Predict the structure.
Amino acid sequence: MMTYTPAEDRYSKMKYAYCGKSGLKLPLISLGLWHNFGGDTPHELKRELCRAAFDAGITHFDLANNYGPPAGSAETAFGEILRTDFAGYRDELVISSKAGYHMWDGPYGEWGSRKYLISSCDQSLKRMGLDYVDIFYSHRFDPNTPLEETMGALDSIVRAGKALYVGISSYNSADTKRAAAILRDLGTPCIIHQPSYNMINRWVERDGLKETLKEEGIGSIAFTPLAQGMLTNKYLNGTPSDSRATQGKSLNPNMLSDKAIANINKLNDIAGKRGQTLAQMALAWVLRDGGITTALIGASKVSQITDCVGAIDNLEFSKEELAEIDVYANEEDINLWAKSSST
Ligand SMILES: NC(=O)c1ccc[n+]([C@@H]2O[C@H](COP(=O)([O-])OP(=O)(O)OC[C@H]3O[C@@H](n4cnc5c(N)ncnc54)[C@H](OP(=O)(O)O)[C@@H]3O)[C@@H](O)[C@H]2O)c1
């Protein structure tokens, strides 16, 4: 196996921001391993993607118990990369995992019980070969478990040395306030929220979550900032065969409506006028007012990571540009996580 030496200039390429009121800095662009890190992807590609990200100054890698397929295989693959390419670099990395969605059969394999969260965290650590993750999340709000129990489990995980920080994902504004208060009382602050957010999925604005996070001093990491690839040049002129929309996974081709594609073409024109690709503008837009700490992308090719990281070269928007974007940045029915934040 070729030995990997990270790019020496990696930290001069990326920008970093404090995650809320914590002391933890995150890169403005982070890499998620939801897709393209399962058993259906060659290990060599996974290595290339992780190395390209780290070379570009991306220090934050986001996982969850169920990423694959099969569930767990993304963590196993990342564990292998930690033992090979990233050996010796653990302290330069912020690694997160989560529990909330279905992971194993029976009553203890999903949602928000103490029983599930603590055993799932142990399993994730084992798969990755880690003593601790940097951030551990409750992946979704559980309406049937007392929030005190779910937050208590996060606090216990930190006190047991299995995570350094905790966060929540897809919680609405009201539940976020309650969770933050419980965690504050326990002495383990909630430092990060992971919501879906992009130009055509703007629930965090309507729900008041962005304001809540500011008030609570909680940082945020926006997932699907490219709307799973819709906010890139990928689908402007039809659906290419090497795309998520053809894989029968989370990007249902019905989401690529004529109206959505027409608007995305208009957004692409605006990006062109800014001297950016559409992906770069979509990421800059998510980060535009400092309300979001980092944009959490996925990638199936190294060139996509390079393109996305280029977003940080132009993060400024004029009022006129934002107004023009608003004309075409219409909500589409693409928020697969709406149910979690609606309770
Ligand atoms: N907390 C939660 O519940 C939750 C839910 C979902 C995701 N997440 C996190 O968010 C991460 C990102 O999600 P996502 O992968 O859906 O995000 P995304 O960045 O919106 O979409 C990534 C996809 O867009 C395409 N793409 C990326 N960069 C491109 C570029 N420069 N040009 C053209 N196409 C480009 C690729 O599609 P192709 O594969 O078609 O090439 C890539 O797989 C996940 O890995 C996970 O960590 C969290």
Observations:
- DSSP finds 13 helices and ten strands in the chain.
- Residues 133 and 253 are 35 Å apart (CA to CA).
